[in-house]
Design a protein that fits this description.
alpha+beta, 3-stranded antiparallel β-sheet, 2 helices, 8 strands, about 25% strand, binds zinc ion
């Protein structure tokens, strides 16, 4: 009887370990920003808020970014079924003189100072 308890206990521990491995196995990934091996904090694989913000701004400050008064904007895709800024109409003039009108402007927020990005447009 004593041996049976030990066998059951060992079996239970083994089963518990296998279940943890199968259903809760936090895999270590290499953070795409800092390269640290860690359990990802975000679905995109970043290990920390700092790395997520770095990746976000690296992606967001692309060649379509509109920077006005230190804020970043993008003209959104039209397939979403709803529009940025509630569909409000904006007229924007770029530094090169080009003027655009949009009713689908999305704000990405204040660009962090460390990116040292200059305004490339103004609202008219
Ligand atoms: Zn990281």
């Amino acid at each position: 009887m004593y041996n049976l308890r030990i066998i059951v206990s060992i079996g239970w521990l083994w089963l518990k370990k296998k279940c943890i491995e199968l259903f809760y196995s936090p895999e270590l990934h290499k953070c795409p920003v800092c390269g640290r091996l860690a359990e990802p904090l975000y679905m995109t694989g970043e290990c920390s808020d700092k790395c997520f913000n770095t990746a976000f701004w690296k992606h967001t400050l692309d060649d379509t970014a509109i920077i006005i008064d230190g804020k970043c904007y993008h003209i959104g895709p039209s397939f979403l079924g709803f529009k940025g800024s509630g569909g409000r109409k904006f007229t924007i003039q770029f530094n090169d003189g080009k003027v655009i009108n949009t009713d689908n402007l999305w704000c990405n927020g204040d660009v962090p100072k460390e990116y040292n990005v200059k305004d490339n447009a103004v609202f008219l």
